[in-house]
Write a structure and sequence with these properties.
heterodimer, A: mainly alpha, 73% helix, 0% strand, B: mainly alpha, two-stranded parallel ribbon, 1% strand, elongated, disordered C terminus, IBH1-like N-terminal domain-containing protein (chain A), transcription (chain A)
């Protein structure tokens, strides 16, 4: 197997890149909103923006090397384009709305429980969790999962430290 | 020992070079001669029958002599002469081409000797008379040790060895470099022998390394012949590390079940090393085996419920550029279908990655079973994603305050504060746990004089908070996260020390929001 890079050196560089991008994005978001008490709608909008910023900065910090980061970047780009087009057309459709609709449709369908040989249920679940996991083979999927976990952990660390610092 | 894989790589590489004849002529005059000689007995032995007992005795003696020569550096020409002549005259004479090749061998052998050292060849005078029999032995040794192209290198590397028998030095070099090389050589013979019989030595090699080619087939046949002729001697020698050379021997499976998937040759050599380590205990493997090597992959022998498995499947990365094909060794009792073998390889890759994931995810090392591990992984990923969401929400709500904070933060070296965090924090607590911990922290902070609000962190000054952290660190740690939780206050402490702390109270709105969030979670 390809040797996994040492978490130390990679984590540090990914971490710094992510931190910088994320902080810049946060500044941008903060500057947009009004400092006076924001309405709940504003708060939810801002939450979404921050989350998108977190994902985008993480994905761009990782770069196009990984399948999941590529997928995430494409998703974000397409979503932003869809948002732009929607706003241009005057459509108030939110980017996540169609996802919810799809989810609802899926919930109505009865799922037959097959004997879980080889952990296929879990594998499918994992595919849904990891961005871009639908189109991967299992071994690549596991690889991507490992890297995704590492990056998520880094993300959480950095964001937590930022929160702690900002709350101070 | 480090040189060995590289050298063996070269040797194997050269050995299985598709331009075999040409390269052999340039690099190793022995090889073609050897192949020819070895192929000659093939005619007699294609049936897979054993040598006559007399021949086997001769062979045994010869190989023993060779081994003793290599070990002690002595030469016994006369004995070899007699044995060799008697040994090889028959096979050599049987095919019509043997004469041609024998003379060819003589010339090449002489040339080869000159190539090596040229000076001390106590063997040398006897060689021409032997009809290249010792040459055959040496070639056989080289053949088995893959000392083809790199003999020069071998000699260069083992300089002092050159002082000893040069002509015999060919096998000797390899032997001296590798203590087990001799066994490998004999093992190679024996391994080759074993393929033809399903007796005690049962292991068969479907194939070994390089891209298939006519030379390969030729070599295969030749090797088969040589192995058959020498099976008894190898057994006599009684070397236990027999199958070490197996992965590098190319051998057609007699029943034709073996599949050749040419593989990166360098992989083989390291495979041999691993095999050496692993095969010393077991000899027999009557089933067909296909060695798999893949560049850049380290293999572990996996025994999936079989009794006597020790063979490894994959090979560690080699310095040479990877070739197109991959050699796979089928395990005992398993199908040698190319599909099933490829599937098995894929399964091993998957299990290897699962193991890595198990190390990555906390609390996963104890569980067994794919489904459970996957469940844990899924839970962990979901918890991480939820944490990101929660933290982003937190950031969003407190964003109004954060502008000046962010400016300060950006101006600082973010890596410094990030680097202060222990690298080992993979054991991230779940969101609820984090909240509970911070809740406890907040509660601890309450008695502080400045009336710190009930949020995660609202220090007015560094010292009280640090004191609180220090106090709280030893207590109220969730039992399951003992190892990870102490790191969290460390983060806070470091962050607080490294960054300017801005005093202020948390606005009521966000404070209540935080409280609500905590309650919900």
């Amino acid at each position: 197997m390809n040797p996994h890079p040492s978490s130390c050196s990679n984590g540090r560089s990914i971490r710094t890149r992510f931190a910088r991008r994320f902080l810049r994005a946060l500044k941008k978001i903060g500057s947009k909103g009004s400092s006076s008490r924001p309405s709940p709608r504003d708060i939810s909008w801002r939450c979404r923006r921050v989350k998108i910023a977190a994902d985008a900065s993480m994905a761009s910090a990782v770069g196009p090397r990984r399948v999941w980061s590529r997928t995430m970047l494409n998703m974000l780009r397409s979503r932003s384009h869809a948002c732009l087009h929607a706003s241009r057309l005057g459509n108030s459709r939110r980017p996540g709305a169609d996802r919810h609709a799809v989810g609802k449709r899926k919930r109505l369908v009865l799922k037959r429980k097959l004997p879980n040989r080889l952990g296929l249920n879990q594998v499918n679940q994992l595919r849904r969790l990891v961005p871009g996991g639908e189109a991967m083979d299992l071994d690549i999927l596991l690889d991507e999962t490992a890297h995704y976990i590492k990056c998520l952990a880094t993300q959480v660390k950095v964001m937590r430290s930022i929160v702690d610092y900002c709350s101070a | 020992m480090e040189n060995q894989p590289g050298e063996l790589n070269f040797s194997a590489d050269c050995f299985f070079n598709p331009n075999w004849d040409n390269s052999i002529d340039q690099n190793d005059p022995f090889e073609s001669g050897l192949s020819s000689i070895v192929s000659s007995p093939t005619a007699s032995y294609t049936g897979g029958g054993f040598l006559g007992s007399g021949d086997s005795l001769m062979m045994r003696e010869l190989v023993g002599r060779l081994g003793s020569i290599c070990n002690s550096g002595e030469v016994s020409h006369s004995n070899n002469n007699s044995t060799n002549t008697s040994c090889y005259s028959t096979p050599l004479s049987s095919p019509p081409k043997s004469n041609h090749f024998s003379s060819n061998m003589e010339n090449k052998f002489r040339g080869g000797n000159l190539q090596f050292s040229g000076n001390r060849l106590p063997y040398h005078p006897s060689l021409p008379t032997l009809n290249a029999d010792p040459g055959f032995v040496e070639r056989a040794a080289k053949y088995s040790c893959f000392g083809s192209r790199n003999l020069g290198e071998f000699i260069g590397q083992s300089g002092p060895n050159q002082s000893e028998l040069p002509c015999k030095s060919v096998p000797k070099l390899e032997f001296s470099r590798v203590p087990s090389c001799q066994s490998m050589k004999v093992a190679g013979f024996r391994a080759v022998n074993q393929e033809n019989k399903s007796g005690p030595f049962g292991r068969k090699l479907s194939k070994i390394s390089r891209p298939p080619s006519p030379e390969n087939a030729k070599l295969r046949n030749s090797r088969e012949g040589s192995s058959v002729s020498e099976q008894n001697p190898s057994g006599q020698i009684g070397l236990k590390a027999q199958n070490e050379a197996n992965p590098r021997k190319r051998k057609p499976i007699p029943n034709g079940k073996g599949k050749e998937i040419p593989c990166p040759s360098p992989a083989k050599d390291e495979e041999v090393d691993e095999v050496n380590a692993k095969r010393s205990k077991s000899d027999e493997d009557p089933n067909n085996e296909i060695v798999k090597g893949s560049s850049g992959k380290k293999g572990n022998a996996k025994t999936t419920g079989e009794d006597d498995q020790e063979q490894k499947k994959e090979v560690s990365k080699a310095p040479e550029p990877p070739k197109d094909y991959i050699h796979v060794r089928a395990r005992r009792g398993q199908a040698t279908d190319s599909h099933s073998i490829a599937e098995r390889v894929r399964r091993e890759k998957i299990s290897e990655r699962m193991k890595f994931l198990q190390d990555l995810v906390p609390g996963c090392s104890k569980v067994t079973g794919k489904a459970v591990v996957l469940d844990e992984i899924i839970n962990y990923v979901q918890s991480l994603q939820r944490q990101v969401e929660f933290l982003s929400m937190k950031l969003a709500t407190g964003n109004s305050r954060m502008d000046f904070n962010l400016e300060a933060l950006l101006s600082h070296d973010i890596s410094q504060s990030g680097g202060s965090m222990p690298q080992t924090i993979y054991k991230l607590d779940s969101t609820a746990q984090a909240l509970s911990y911070s809740f406890h922290e907040a509660q601890k902070m309450q008695p502080l004089p400045n009336g710190i609000s009930n949020s995660t962190l609202a220090p007015v000054s560094i010292d009280p908070l640090n004191a609180a952290l220090l106090r709280s660190r030893s207590i109220q740690l969730p039992s399951t996260f003992n190892s990870s939780m102490p790191q969290v206050p460390m983060i806070w402490e470091d962050d607080l020390q490294t960054v300017a702390v801005q005093t202020g109270f948390v606005p009521n709105q966000t404070q209540s929001f935080h409280g609500q969030m905590k309650l919900q979670l």
